[in-house]
Amino acid sequence: MTTKDYSGEECISELKIDAKYFIFAYMKVSVWMSAYNHEKYLAQCLDSVLRQRTNFDFDIILGEDCSKDRTREVALEYQKKYPEKIKLFLPEKNIGMMEMDLATWGLCKGEYLALLNGDDYWTDENKLQTQSDFLDNNPDTVICFHKAKVEDETNGSSFETVYLEPNDTMPIESLLLGYNPIMTPTVMIRNLWKIPDWYRELPYGDMPLYLMLAQKGKIKYIDRLMSVYRVHSSGQWQGESVYNNLLKDLKFYKVMNEKLDYKYDDLIKIIFAQRYFDLIIIDIDKKESNRQKNF
To answer: Which of 28, 35, 136, 192 is deepest in the core (most CB within 10 A)?
Structure first.
């Protein structure tokens, strides 16, 4: 049985036929990936996944969004080498980050999903096993994440993320208001939420996923360095101005406040005040800069 993606490439389903029954093959973990203009990074990223040592099966669901470089060619080369492991989603035209998430989410059949972007990579070959075991042993947990090394290619610096909570459980209030140590390549989640259509209204996808899943269970931290998160000028967030990112935040929290039934309305009002204050400061600085130029 086959299904078709936007590009016409065949995507083999997990359906197996028994003599009397249709049985879906069990997959412990699906690695949920997207890539756009990641030619220089994608091979290292995929190699770090393929090196994983596990006692279970996992697959890689990779959406490639019509990059302007050779990212798609790299993805196809790896899929040809590992056809049973890598499943590609290849739209005929660029559909954007949020549409890509919606399109590829349904292809992930794993009990757990490991999040990864094509410009990041894993440094520990036991990462998937470690996080899968953790979720197996902590049934109250819906999200687990770990320490990451952040490499900033814009200035050559690097640092390790710092988790500031007094125990291994992150309160959702801290996720909303405080320093966010959850880097995408550190996350594994339970596959128990269907991404809704309103998701495409949002400017970015990681925080709504965390916030909605956190309504179903706990977010827990593993104090182990197992990933590298890259910062570079062409990144989805880093490639935008601070001003535009603040506007994205305002749009995000407006939608999420409604979808969370205003459960955290007091906190979100504080966030709105902070973002508007930051926008005002930027406007003041810009006007002062323009005034000095005119002298």
So the answer is: 35
